[in-house]
Amino acid sequence: MKLLLVVNPISGGIDKEAFLKNAITICEKYGINYHIFKTSGKADQQKLTDIINTFKPTKVASVGGDGTTLFTCTALLHSNIPMGIIPLGSANGMAEELFVNPKPEEALKDIIMSEVIGHLDMVQVNDNNFSIHIGDVGLNAQIVKGYDKDVNRGITTYAKYFIKELNSIKTFDIKIEANGETINEPGIMLGICNSRKYGTGVPLNANGNPMDGMFEIVLVKKMDVNILAKAGLSIFSDSFIDNENALVISTTEAKITFNQERTLQLDGEIVGAFSTLDIKIIKGAVKFITHSNNPYLKR
Q1: What start-end ranges are recorded for coiled-coil regions in this protein (predicted)?
Q2: In 43-154, which ranges are continuous DSSP H helix?
Q3: Which end of the chain has the smaller Cβ count within 10 Å, N or C?
């Protein structure tokens, strides 16, 4: 077996060297041919593509957080090379969504041993932007700006910026064209979901399944800041987005139009401002190494 480890050295501010030392020991013990690729922020996509073409790995392990997972998936798009996740980032939301072992060494062993392969969907936005997790326009995109600058992480920090933005957010006009219908509704946020929860653990889409060939558009019409403040962090349960104040549409493609350019974030990264979003699902875009206890395989 030939194993390629794609490592983001700085994701989550976590030192990866101790894990890599253990990974090398495991590979050498069991005769696994390995190669380690570390991102540098300079032409990483092309460099990774070149290594995949020359090393020709049997399996690929993404070592980092959600951003590293998306980066690795994009490089493997439409290939027959399966990949797994080693959760070592500040946000490991997709790893949790996909029922990856939270212990990095155990996750590595699962990747090496497992022959159970799922077919992971990707969402394509405006031709050259991709998501495997959750993207949005509006409330959360604004929260991300503040959250990313904070030295602290986790649900408490997210809640701080959430309440701050919710006090100042204004509704904006949203036009959704999907499933042969056109919907015009004002809202405070539009979610583009291939899964259920953000990396912080905040749920947005109860219907999410990253292996069903569909994605969900979640239009959040309003939230009551007073109720949220009184409820505290307990509000971040599966009932966080209630049916009365949100519209959920399952589809394979959609066109979203805003009355002006709006900031878009995909999988925790701000990708730009757009007035129109053309969205489609890429069904089974990446082969994902998992296990037979993954409930998504049984739906």
Answers
A1: none
A2: 44-55, 66-75, 93-97, 104-113, 139-149
A3: C
